[in-house]
Structure formats: structure tokens, C-alpha cells
Fold this protein.
Amino acid sequence: MPPRTVKLRAATVTAVLALGAALLAASPQSGAAAAEPAPVTDHCRGQCDDILPPGENGNATLVEILGNKTLGTHPAHSDDQLDRYNGLVAGHTGLTDQKLTEFFNDASFGVPEGQVESVTSPRDDVTITRDKASGVPHIKGTTRYGTEFGAGYAAGQDRLWLMDLFRHIGRGELTSFAGGALANQGLEQQFWPQAPYTEADLEAQVEYIRTHEGARGEQAMADAQAYVDGINAYREKSKNGRYFPGEYVLTGKIDAITNVGEIQPFKLTDLISIASVVGGQFGGGGGGEVQAALSLLAAQQKYGVAEGTRVWESFRQREDPEAVLTVHDGTSFPYARKPDQARGTALPDAGSVTAEPLIHDRTGSAGTDRKALVKAPAGLKKAQGIYDDGVIPEGSLPGSGPGAQKRGMSNALLVSGKHTASGNPIAVFGPQTGYFAPQLMMLQELQGPGISARGVSFAGVGMYVQMGRGQDYAWSATSAGQDITDTYAVELCEPDGTTPTKESTHYLNRGTCTAMETLSHTNSWKPTVADSTAAGSYRMQVRRTDYGIVTHRATIDGKPVAYTSLRTTYRHEADSIIGFQMFNDPDYVKDAASFQRAASNIDYAFNWFYADSRTAAYYNSGMNPVRAAGVDPALPVRAERAYEWQGYDPAGNTAAYTAFAEHPHSSGQDYYISWNNRQAEGYATAGFGFGAVHRGDLLDDRVAKLVEEGGVTRASLTRAMAEAAVTDLRGEQLLPELLKVIRSQPVTDPELNAAVQQLESWRAAGSQRRESSPGSHAYGHADAVRIMDAWWPKLVEAEFTPGLGSELYGALTANLATDESPAAGHGPSGAHSGSAFQYGWWGFVDKDLRQVLGQEVEGPLARTYCGDGDRAACRDVLLAALKRAVAQPATEVYPGDGSCKAGEQWCSDSIVHRALGGITQKAIHWQNRPTYQQVVEFPSHR
């Protein structure tokens, strides 16, 4: 049995053996009805709420799509949560517990009498009841198979087209499926190389879960098969009944007149490919070591090896002592730390690094945006070109788009009962996964043998609720991003013993010259009504080694090498299904400790939060490899046995992993916050940007104040979240220091003095980006917001470039962008995506200015950069940058795009649900807030 199975699953063996026989017996393929299960007690007693805009219904027929394009109408329940979600911006200041349902759904179990909108029974052993308020499916099964079949059927009803898109994205076949738009080309080129698999690879992952995870693994695959069967049942029924999603007509899959065509059946391996997209983007961590090496080399070139390394480490901030922490009681969890004496580090020769080519054999429109309109029937003209910019606009998903970073997402606020008005813990939490129409997730309630939960699941992998609530507990997650991905330098060779080059396709594998495995996909497309991109094709190709996927080529001391990326979850994309199964099992999760054990079965890097009537708790999940002594995880390492993960077996990508107790975890701390910040002392960060200022401070400061005052309620904790959601991090955390430097002498320029006064007034009012009145589409303190947006990138460059030099500054900004304001379309999520202020130079500016001001700084930068450390010179630098910002017109600060005209400030910030199908939604007010969110307080427990 591989090491990971021994370590991660040993804690659950007893429970698995006890449950095994009953669970496996509960998966008959027959539709015979079983005895009615006992009623479920809902211990939340009306104190659980949730929200997921724009609406539950994510399918639209061709007629409904054309109605949306022609008349602006929306299918039922496709937009009925949008206004409530948007309304919290204006409504949070007067929020009370009684008013929460004005902005959230009642997340109680079941459907109240008189609120039933429809009841569907796709089999005798399951019913899908939808409520009038939001159309959420409440799935109740008398057998395990029926329950999961119903979940799949409901997923087909609500997300059939979306699931089809994502299985093709995961398989690297998006352009062949949905069209060759340039954004589609970019998306599959971004995602497929991160998880390239053959069909045999996908099948092996299904079999691994079935054969290596005991009774729960067998049950998980039986549940997944039932779920797929349910999807396929709806797929066939909707096709035959002609109420399938209209996008299949617009993309040429089905003829609108004859109904000729097919929606390809779903299979288990499709779920693995979808899981690779979802888990890899929201639950990945680490990587980027080649770019880190390049910035280190730039620092060493400028300052020399010793001083350059010291400068670089001060920007890398692996364990910044001033960083906001989730576990703040001083408990340390050492992991991925900088070794005292690094071994095996593999820095490239200067100027030798080249990226591995991905695209080959382009034809036609490949690599371009050339269009060739098809003649659309008169009735379809209103929908022509809906995908000309791609089914998912470039940059919409984390990790997609040129130069994009994987972004951690989501936030959580929890307060222990000692500090609440009721004496019970309170949680306000949820995943921040971008904004799409339909949403990537869907709400559902599942009630059946061994399953009792309500919440969200990513469409296509919704066998279980992934974040939500059980009978007497609730849970959620934030992306953790700890380092579970390493970069290796494999030495290249030629099998005949001749001198290798950077282009060689063989490598030394534990002393043997071994051929790299070539994986490739050839995609082709032709214009359709939906996507008029001209016909074209190309071949995507990656090289796979026992040390991961080749990403770059270089030389080290003149010898050619390939850099590879190896993450622990590769070949294990869906193993986390075991943890999710446990979350939904009321006989397994009974308290905080059992929840934490369940969370340890999640292999992706997530921070998990839990609340019941007694305890608030936290656990950090992930397959954290045990690295060889002396290996520096922040930089590339030589691909030699001495530097491999301990116990590494390349055949199945298994190794030794850190034990349960070594992961950050806690129960009963006074409060917890997470906004993708650092987890705990000793737990080194996987990338740049975890310093003295982080967006987590926006939550931590507010929750700490509430806890100090005591008597926290659901409403007060929600208000804290909502206030942080409209606050500019730069204005709240950095503007006071900027103004202190500037006001160290009188500002004699009248225009600059007026600008400074505007900034001071904005800061005094809370540094918010919020409408002056509901619906005005104009910010209060609009000029101050514009000045800050224009000033920040200018002041960062002016502050640091003179000292660092343009080359090192450029290398460091490649590691960490300087800004991610709501209007910054260059951020990792693109414009109009809500999530903001995660990646930026806030911490660098903060430390540098405090060093200029002579204040105490823990973990200071190696040098002081603003004005070379002279306060007067620094003031001149800041004022010169401010003068340029004041002069920049709004039309340049907010240049406009497909959703906004140039100069429209509110619109530039606004959230736009990216249409993944034919239905579009109106823009809403910017909020830096979870997409799906729960507000929970349990007054009782089983």
C-alpha cells in the first residue's frame, strides 16, 4: 500500500470498517423504493442562511436564450438571488439578525409547506423538490443509489452545458467543442498543461480510488457512477423532449429543426477531468520556482551573491513576523522553511532559460482572432457571435490569461461562543470563486442513507455537498496555497551517448538515460453561429517525466537541463472525494475533532473552517510532501535521488506526507479569519506577497474589535465582512503612512494640497469604494478614489526603481504584481471579477515607509528605498508621483472595455457575471466578498 494511503487513511479505518457493509449494500441499481428514512432534525432552527448569485437555474433553452437577447427576459430562478446579494452593499449598515433573509436565502433543511414549486421523481427511490423562493433542488432518496442519481439529474437540470464545457476544458478539447475564439485557445493552453492526461491515466485514477481507499473508496465510485447515470438520464430526456440547453444548437451540435445531433454521454473519467480544473485552480499551491530563481539571479547580479540573496529574501518574506495569521495563539507548525544550508539548489545560467513550446502545427486562424461569419437563420441572428470572445473570457478564471497568477480565494470569519451574544459560535464564510452566469457551483440539499447536507458543489462533481451545512454543523474553505508543487532540474542526455542540447528529449532518471513521454492533443474548429472564428487547428504537446511536466529549458554550469513541475496531487485529482464523503456523513462528523479528521482526507491545499453549537475550529488540508533535508522549496532543485521527496514513487506519484498533527489546526480559538493569508507561525508561504499588509488585515482588525467588545451576533459579524468588502486596502492600511511622509512639511502646491485633502477626507470616511446613494453609480469621494487608483502604480515604481534598478524591479514584479484594485484588469482575475487586493506591493511599501519614518519594523526590507531612506527625498518622490496622478484624466485611469465606457469609475469596478452560456446578467456593485456565502449559528447539537 502506498505511503499516502497508510498515513492519511489510518485514522479512519475503524469508521470505514463499521460503515463499509451498510454503505455498499445501499447502492442497488434497481429503482425499487425502500423504506422512508427517519426525519432529519435541523439543529440550526432558522439560523442558517446562504446566497449564491445570480440564481440556481443555469440552463436555458434556445427560445429562452433568444428571449434574453431580444427582450432581456430571464428564465425562472436564473437571476433571483442577484439583487439580494447586491443589496448588502447599501443594507449592511442597518443589518440586524431579523433582516438577514432580505439578503440571504433561508438555508433550513427541507421545503416549508406551501413553498413547493415542483416535485420530480426521475426514479421511484428519489424525489427532487424545488422551492418557490429560489428553485434550489432538495434531493431526498430512500436508497443511496437513488439519492446520488437524483443529484446527477438535478445537476443536469441546472448545469448541463456548463458541465460539458468544463469536461472539455479539463481534457484540453475546448476549441474543438465550443469554437476557436482566441480566448478559448488561451484557456485550454493554460489549463491542459497543468493536468495533462491520457484516457488511461484518467481511468487509472478511478481505479486507484476504488481499490486503495477501502469501503469508502468503493462507495465513492458507486456514488459517482450513480451521479453520472443521473446526468445521462437528464441528458437523454432533455434531448428527446427538445428542452436541452440552446447552446448546443448555437455551437452546431444539434439541429434546431430536425433535432439531429448528440450530447455526448458523460462518464466517470469526465468527473476526473472536471476535478482537475476545479482542484488545480482553487486548491493548488507552490510552483513558480523558475521565476523566483530569475529574480534571485537578478538580485545577485546587482548586489553580489551574499547581499543580493539578503535583498531577495527580504522581498520573498517566507515567514514575515508582521503577517496576519489564522492561528494567532502562537502555535507553530514548521513546514517548507528556508534551510540553514541549502542542498541541491539548481539555479540556471543567466540568460539561458526558455519556456517549453506548447503549440505546434498551427493552421488557419490558430493564434489569431480572424473571423468568418456563417449565414445564420433569421431566428438565430440575435444570438450570433455570443462566443466570439470565448465561452469564458480570457482572464476570468484564476490562473488563466497572460502572466496570470493562481489566486487563493474565499474568506471566513468565525467567533467562538465565549464572545457571542448567544454563547454559540457564529460563522460567516464562503468560497470566492469569481462571477459567472451560470455560477461554477450550484446549491443543493442531499438527504439519503449516509448523506445529510445542504450547500454548494462544483457542477459536474456534485456527488456530495462540498461546502455547506449538516444537521448540526457547517463548514467552508478558503484556498490555502501552501507549497505542494516543486520544480526539478532534470539533466538532459542522448541515448547514444552524444552531447545533449537544450532540445534533447531524453533525461537522466536515477542514472539511466530515459525518453520523455510525449502527450499531445490536436484540436480543430470551424465557425458556428455562436463563434464565428475562422476554421483552424493546432497541436498541443507536453513532455512528461518521472519528475513532472517539462515547463522550461536552460543550462546549469553550461550543461543543458529541463525544468519540470511536480505537484503532489497530480494523478490524484479526485482522491479528495473521500473527505467530501465524510463531510456529508452525519454518522462520521459529530464534532470539531471528527471534522478535522475528515478534512485531512482532502488532498488539495485548503483552509477548512467548522462551526457547531459548541466549537469553532480550523484545519489546513493538503498533500504536503516530506522533502529531503536541506532542500529549499522556494527554488528549483536537482532531479537526483538525494533531493527527491522522501519515499517518492514516480509510478503513482506517491511519497511520504506530513502527518495530521503537523498541519495547522486549532479548536476554540477566540476567533478565526482567513482571506488567503498565512496560516500560522512556522508555516512558510509558497510565494511572494504575505507581508505586513494583507487583505486579511481588513477582516482581522474588525473581528478583533468585535471580540474585544463582546456580544457578537450574526448581523454584526456579517456587517464586519460587508464593510471590509467595500474597503480599499491601500486607503485603510497604507494611506496613513503615505500622508505622514507627505505632511512632514507643508504642501505648498495648491493643486497637490487639494488632492491630499481629498485623500485625507476619504481616509477619514473609511476608505470605501461605495456608491454615494443606492443606484447612483457614483462613488462617494470619487475623486480621491481616482487619485489613489492613478497614484498607486506610479508611487510604487518611483519608490523602488531607483534603488533596485529596472532589471531587478522587473524581475520582482514578475513574481508579484504591484496592484490589484477592483478596476485593475491586469490582475490575476481580470476586470469585473470582485476579488481584489490579494496580490500587490502593499507590504513592501508599508515596511519601506515605516523605515523612512524611523518606526520599528520587524522583518525589515534589506534596504530602504524611498528617497534612499531620506524622508525629505522620499516626500519629493511621493509628491512627484502624486502630481502625475492628479493630472491623469479619468478616461485614462479607467480606459473602458466591453462593459464600460472610458472614464466610468463605478462601472470599471462593477462585478459582471461572465456569461458561460447564452444568458447575460446586469452589472452589480463591486464587493470583495465570497461568491457563495453562509451565515450560521447553531443553537443546539445532537
